[in-house]
Amino acid sequence: MTSPSDGLPAARGVVRLLNTSGGGVLCLAGAVDGAAVASFHRRYGREPARVAVIDARSVTSLSPPVVELLVEHLAAGYRAGRPVLLRRSGPVERALAGVI
């Protein structure tokens, strides 16, 4: 499946940044794959965003690039002295087991 606008594979899941009164939220939903991560990087850049929360409760499946994105954001928060709250689904819990 490709996106008609850029010829790249269409993402099956969603990765977005939201600004809330409580700080930034990295939201992931659906079957998040490498195409969703690539779309996120094109939109927001590769540097981990400053987020207070990662909401991945609606993730149904995820690929290795998604795990890497999650770990990068969690590690950036930890290094900055601001732990990130991770709300996770079963698939996210299993994918991160032994990683964090």
Short description:
This is STAS domain-containing protein. This protein has 100 residues and is of the alpha/beta class.
Give an account of the 3D structure.
- The protein contains three helices and four strands; from the N terminus they run E-E-H-E-H-E-H.
- It is α/β, with parallel strands linked by helices.
- The radius of gyration is 13 Å and the shape is globular.
- The N and C termini lie far apart (32 Å).
- 25% of the residues are buried.
- The model has no long low-confidence stretch (mean pLDDT 91).
- This is STAS domain-containing protein.
- It comes from Geodermatophilus telluris.
Helix content: 25-40%
CATH architecture: 2-Layer Sandwich
Give the helix tally.
3
Please report the first level of CATH classification, the CATH class: Alpha Beta
Order of helices and strands: EEHEHEH
Could you name the ranges where pLDDT drops below 50 across 5 or more consecutive residues? none
Give the strand content: 25-35%
